[in-house]
Each structure stands twice: as C-alpha cells, then as structure tokens.
Amino acid sequence: MALSKNQIIYIAGFGAIAVLVIGTLAFVPGEFGGSDGSGGDAAENDYGYTPWTGDLFSIITGDPDYELPGEIESMLFAVQAAIGAIIIGFFIGMTYAKKKDE
After folding, report:
1. How far apart are CA 92 and CA 85, in angstroms?
2. What DSSP assignment string belongs to 2-54?
3. CA-CA to 30 of 20 to 30 Å: which in 8, 68, 86, 99?
4. Which of 67, 59, 33 is nearest to 42 (CA)?
5. Cα–Cα distance measured from residue 73 to residue 81, given in angstroms and rounded to the nearest whole number
6. Which residues of the chain have pLDDT under 50?
7. 99 within a domain of the structure (yes/no)
8. How much is the pTM?
9. How far apart are CA 8 and CA 2, in angstroms?
10. Residue 100 domain-assigned?
11. Is 21 helix (H, G, I), strand (E, B) or coil?
12. Residue 14: its pLDDT value, please?
C-alpha cells in the first residue's frame, strides 16, 4: 500500500513536532512542577491575599489541613479528562455526520 502525498506530509509534520518536543525537553534544566499551588502561593506572598473560602473537603470534615488522598485526586482528574474526551468526540462525530450527509 503506497502512502498518499497528504499522508507523507502528516507523518513528516508529526515527526518534526516530536523531534522538537523531545529535543526541547532533553535540554531543559530542573524539574517540571505543577501550577496548582504556585498561583495561590504567589498571590498570598506577593499581594497579602488571604483566601475567603476554604477547600470543600476541609469544610465538610471540619479539619482545615485535610487533603484528599492521591488516589482520589487521580480519579477525579481521570473523570475530568474522560468528560472532555466525550465532548470532543461528540463534536467530531457530529462534524463527520454532517459532512457524510452532504
């Protein structure tokens, strides 16, 4: 099976992007850290901001230092990603169906 011109262009494009990403990651010093806490820390440290709400689970349990276990956080993140994938897949399917009907 011979590849079409468009398929070759796509493969070359994705290959170039992969080389750029891997090359960039190989030469970046230090560790990658998440931004979950850094934004709040920056606001509290730089501007004297004090939060006016609490963490939902801290409020429910009554313990201000309560944190969810890592497994629960991972599960909630996976559910969020699945919902996003379903929404994107729905719109891609709708677009495909519209083009097929035309």
Report:
1. 10
2. PPPHHHHHHHHHHHHHHHHHHHHHHT--S----STTHHHHHHHHHH----SS-
3. 68
4. 33
5. 12
6. none
7. yes
8. 0.46
9. 10
10. yes
11. helix
12. 96
The Cβ-side half-sphere exposure at 88, using a 13 Å CA radius, reads 6
Is 43 inside any structural domain?
no
With CA atoms as reference, report the closest residue to 52 among 43, 102, 61.
Answer: 43
Query: What pLDDT, on the 0 to 100 scale, is given for residue 88?
Result: 97
Written as six digits, the tokens of 12 are 């070359």
Can you give the residue range of the structural domain that contains 78? 68-102
* pLDDT value, residue 17: 96
| The total number of structural domains that make up the chain | 1
Amino acid at the residue 49: Y
CB 58 within 8 A of CB 65: yes
Lookup result for tokens 């909630």: 76
Could you tell me if residue 83 is inside a domain?
yes
- The first and second tokens of residue 47, run together, are 């501007």
